[in-house]
Amino acid sequence: MTSTHQATLERSRDRHDLSAARPRRAPVRERMSWAIYDFANTIFSMNVTTLYFSVWLVSDLGASNTMYATASAAASFLVILSIPVLGSISDDQRRRKPWVIGFTLLCCAATALIGILGQHQLPLIGSEVRHPHGAPGAWHPNLGTMFGVLAAFAIANYAYQAALPFYNAMLPELVPAEEQGHLSGVGTGLGYVGSIVGVLLVVPFFNGALPVIGALPARTMSALRHIVPYTDAGGRVSTFVPTAVLFLLFSLPLFTLCHDHGPAPRGTRAHWRRAFREVANTLRDASGHPGALRFIIASFLYQDAIGTIIGFMTLYAVKAVGFTAGTEITLFLVLTVPAIFGSYLYGELVDRFGAKRCLALTLVLWVLLLIGMVVVPSKTGFWIVGLLIGLNFGGVPTAERPVLLSLVPDAEAGRYFSLMLLSARAAAIVGPLIWGITVDTLEPRVGTGLAYRAAVISVIVMFVIALVVLRRVPDRRTQPAV
């Protein structure tokens, strides 16, 4: 018997064993604790990767777009090096939860480290800093002076991304295939609630106020800064430690209530050498699952486009549209509200009309809305387009998980989610760098507004190509993978 045939039989036996061990529908406490993790991790993604870090780096400290893009690319490179192998090992042992816990703890620690290093190694300057300490004449925001903070951000971003394929692979263990769109939509919707809650709980450490309500009493702020360390300085540098604390706190339900179903017996060896081979085998075996590899390629493109626009959208609002630094927090808080309802709506649409159709719809809407962002440069236009982007934003994470699960066996979901993340992260090295180089090259020649709009056009092109590739992915609607 050939080794390839033997491996196929082993995987088939694993799928049978796993299907027998996995409940058709896990208890409510497990399903909800899984969904709440989306609430937790979007606190990090909203506060760190969307709102505060890029503007702190570029606007407050004077670093370049390319420097921020390089730090993001470093995180993606770490994902490329490690996650497919770890996903293969996770499939061998049929354990997802320990990886989610480990990477979450690493993300929280590195996020807190950004705030600590930022206050010890860098000038305290920028919007809402309570007692600014100006940069000395010899100080410049280059790779040498910024290395510690950039490294901490890269590790935090890496760990955040690294937890996701293991988290996604838990989905088929919790509900049957025909309910995955609903639970995925609930998780995504809770994620946007987490974005709002995270912003509201962290923004007082930035400016001592709440959106719409205004400044908080001095006694309240003094108590908050006393409870949470490394927040007394104010400004964006004081938002990272509270974000880390909140991410950890809201991850505890998954840590304590959610379980792996049908794990391999404790002591099962992790076959590291075979895991490395399985990375190549996953690409080879994808040809046996029609549409799987093509879908991975499509995700390469649209995830890169989404990651790029979200990573730089705050800078776009401040630099290109003219929002006053600090007011973009209220803007993105409001734009997140429709994402909650949109995610739930997409979850219902996925179960009714099929995940692939819904994924194609959300990509078409991304293209149209970004075109609107380019051609309507006013603040009013940005508000309108932003609200519609918020309504559409949950479509991709809600639909793509059921699409992939419809194309591959449940027992192999971990390595295919890892491969999808690998492809997206490989592209994410390119997308942000294209954005950064485009803006830094064009801005001195054509001005800030046109330079940033040219960068948005590059993102539109990614979405269009992703749509073309997605057209030939099979539409299997809610049929379980076998």
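The record above closes out task 2.4. Task 2.5 opens with a second protein, given below.
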Amino acid sequence: MNARTETGKGHSSRPRTGRGVFCRLALAAAAVASLGLPVGPARGDEAKSRPNVIFILVDDYGTPGASCYGGKYKTPNLDALAQGGVRFEHCFSAPLCAPSRALCMTGRYAFRTGVLDNGTGARATPKGEVCIAKLLKQAGYATAVAGKWRQLSYFITKEEGRAWGFDEFLIWGVGTKGERYWDPDYNRNGQFLTDTQGKYGPDMLHEFAVDFIRRHRDGPFFLYYPMVLIHGPILRTPDSPAQGADHYADNIAYMDKLVGKLVEELDGLKLREKTLIVLVGDNGSVRGGTIQGRAIDGGKGSMKEGGSRVPLVCNWKGTTPAGRVSQDLVDFSDFFPTFAEVAGAKLPAGVTIDGQSFAPQLQGRPGKPRQWVYIQLGDRRYVRDPRWKLTGDGELSDMKEAPFREIPVAAQSDDPQAQAARKKLQAVLDDVKSQDQWAGKSSPKAKKEGQKKPRGKRAARAKAKSQP
């Protein structure tokens, strides 16, 4: 985790180092320099030398949904990306949508942004936080988002899109109360669409993404693609048979199909070697699920392993080592500095970024893997290293059988490894708690989806229509 000086509203101007735990992790900015990548807006050949970045976030998609992780559902296109790139075994999100999305967009933990659950997404504002899209835009990237922007707020007009850093957008989210799938209620560049009858939302998002890629093929571009699939309601897809369908399996298959079509498009445009594709789930699967036929422990919304352990596949043809399976820990704050590093972008001054770049691992180098991940939902929290997990309530677990089982370790255990782990992880939790401005302020009635709508739909539409 990076300890940088915070000077924004509501923050102290002194470096927040706590007990020094955060400071012991290397600054992601140093990694940028180590690669010799350019910083600042790209010009000429510099722009051509940096990769496009496509960040695919699949909704409610844990590891049991991917066959390359041992899940029962067939995902041949995702598997092909894993075979040609790096598959991470230990990637951790928050257990619910809003805190995960705030994490990956800002690189900052919930105790900084205040996005603790699905009812607190409006605490992250484009004035108070630096979105990764804005950082890459400043570095010379064309930017777009296609998909779900639901619990996070302040995204209706073109101006609000630009405030987050996006040149273009087609989103389902703020100000929309209609469907995400059939006859979808979408906002394109500040205009709510009225011609969606009979159309399937995921196809529309795919077409928007492809159009953006084609128009910016000379690059570099950043496409944030937070799919609406496979979140409920689980409905038929255009490929579902008329009768006897398992619509959950259909939704996974259609998601995988769209990933394959996107890769095909990149191949046709000869952009594969110039494009980093990152695909990850935003939290665990609703159903939990199985790996190699064995039930995992927990699912969406749970502080167990299955609530946050998600698939992460990275493919940058000709750069990522093909077929590598990494055991390195990754958490959702890490995407921000990783994308910044490969883009040659400077991390924002005066902002604490909790993530740690794993860009070296994408280039086949060992890098400096993080020593632990931090997970928070409301006031519940835990820290996990490769072997041990410690909760905010002081419960230590041996994770050697994860994701299937957590083995409780008594506080009075005389196991020296367990004692050392407790001491190390407790120091991290103490440091976090000393910086937590939002303790006790999680939403009292946080729901799994879309609780907080800061503006009414009618007002939102009127505001959007008034924009150029």
